[in-house]
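Quick one, T. Sequence first:
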Amino acid sequence: MLRRAVPYLYLAPAVVLLIVWTYRPLVQAFELSTYSWNLMPTSPARAVGIGNYERLLELPSFGDSIWRTVALIAGLLPFTVLLPLVIALACRRVGGRARTVYQALAFAPFLVAPVAAAAVWRWLLHPGAGAVGQVLGSDRNWVYDAATAPRVIVVIAGWHLVGFAMLVVWAGLAGISSDYDEAARVDGADAGQIRRWITLPLLSPTLMFLVLNTVLLSPTLTFPLIDTMTQGGPAQATTNIYYLLWDYAFHSFDAGLSAAAGVLLFLGFGVIAVVLVWISEKVAFHDD
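Structure tokens:
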């Protein structure tokens, strides 16, 4: 009997931490979403049922932030999936120490703190005095222009994440046996056919992992950039769903509305995660 309990005893600390730091806050967030509270200890919370959800769905800013989040994810996918794949495949032709140096240089931007990177890029993009404006011969205010600010966030976030994504692709390529390539060459396949019919299908689970990470984490990872550079502006052009729920809580002091947005965000991204994981498993099964 004791032997059967040993595996559960090993799992118990992780389960306890998971309950305390993940599931308990989720339950508390759902509970808070049914109250109206301004975060003041002296102000009692007032139960409103589903009133916060009804009010949230009627706010134009909520729907707009969802579309901005979709645009952000779509803009980052080339930086986190397509570009790392192209560079990693090209890097296979580089050997020896040059490859190690190349990988280190590519990964370096990911090591820069997002707040520090935002400060440096804000200086580089400063109208007139910034290096970007001088190179392009433009005095455009890239950060505070509603037409360019979302693109600036996408480019800086992509620059920050592309190195990590390339390492993931390189790890996926390293896990593909060279026997497949050799067998294909014996059958007369050229390099392009090997990439198309062997490398890419075997790499598809890795690429799906990058898509999943981009969809679920990019709005969170861009929060420091947005808060440091634009504060959600100009005219809420860079306010995605993550920044909006933070704004509801700590600018508008509407904890219930922010919790309701968080609950809907959790449910929405949970459904997306389930779908992407299902697709990833189907792809991996098909490859096997």
